[in-house]
Amino acid sequence: MNHRKTEFVKWLTHTVRIRHYHTQLRNQVIEFMVQLETNAKDKWCPVVRYDTKHGFAHKDIIHFDGSAEKFNLGMSNYNIAMIFAEQDLKSNWGKYIEQFLEEVESYDR
């Protein structure tokens, strides 16, 4: 089978980016990862990740301490789930980054 892999990084600011990866078979997405990242404390940190790693489309909200909250998207169509993920991160990245940076600040206290 001919799998087509796509990978890129979209910069939103000099300290915020979205990392995107997906694999398609014909026109069907068979796996994906869309991750919002920020540079905090001189390292790149994942903030929110949508992926299919555990065999289902889900969202992970990742905390500065490394813990994560997992939310099942309830979508079996990965094409739709990936588009949803991209739209959520493009629309809400500022809110996600603000919450994450508040955790970074409280971590130092």
In short:
By secondary structure, the chain is of the alpha+beta class. The protein has one helix spanning 78-108; strands spanning 3-13, 16-25, 28-40, 43-51, 58-62, 68-72.
Structural overview:
This protein has one domain. The chain is built from 1 helix and 6 strands. The chain has one helix at 78-108; strands at 3-13, 16-25, 28-40, 43-51, 58-62, 68-72. Strands 1-2-3-4-5-6 form a 6-stranded antiparallel sheet. The mean pLDDT is 95.
Largest sheet: 6 strands, antiparallel
Tally of distinct domains: 1
As residue ranges, the low-confidence spans are none
**What is the straight-line distance between the termini?**
53 Å
Please give the structural blueprint.
Blueprint: E1 3-13, E2 16-25, E3 28-40, E4 43-51, E5 58-62, E6 68-72, H1 78-108
Antiparallel strand pairs: 1-2, 2-3, 3-4, 4-5, 5-6
Keywords:
single chain; 109 residues; alpha+beta; six-stranded antiparallel sheet; 1 helix; 6 strands
